[in-house]
Amino acid sequence: MRLSSFRVTAAALVAAAWLLPVAPVAAQGATEQPSQVIESSANSLLKALDADRPAYQHNPAKLEALVDQYILPHVDTAFSAQLVLGKYWRTATPQERQRFINAFYHSMLNNYGTAILQFTSNMLKVFPTHVTGDDPVVVRTQMQRGGGAPVAVDYYMHMTPQGWKVWDVHIDGVSYVMSYRQDFGSQIAQQGIDAVINRLERGERPAQLAKTPGGAS
Fold it and tell me: What is the CATH number of the domain that holds 152?
């Protein structure tokens, strides 16, 4: 997932974090560890990209379709969105909840979809995990920056009836979910949930994420 440049932005790191766990659920054996899912998923996605990378670089719709195919079944977007809204989830109408989930998901596509082209498998190191029954499971990885120190990217995963799913990502200790939650909380209180849905639909993201390694993009 990388262009010729080795400069890795915060947006690209978040993209990698959300887009790597994409292995088909059917391929996940009963004893497969979450770290194995992450690693094998990365290779699956990279194989698809490498088969026609120039086409994906020049056709955003083609790239978005690929991302949509792989990411949606394997990230617990609804659970993440609920955590982002926090107490406001309980007071939101079913229609508002669904709008927020959809906007949250499409915000990820709009902000970070093209960033997957900036990575290749040799930039990723996945540390083994062993499930002991505790939930959530944290899969620890490192993303190598060209000329810089490795960046810690931790995936928080839980088992669902559909298999292992990612519900949060921490980049050098900065939580994707909590960054959105802290950024949106005061605005929801003052302006209502529609205001943050509109922000998501415009592709905006919390300033805190721009402070993660690599800087703003």
Answer: 3.10.450.710
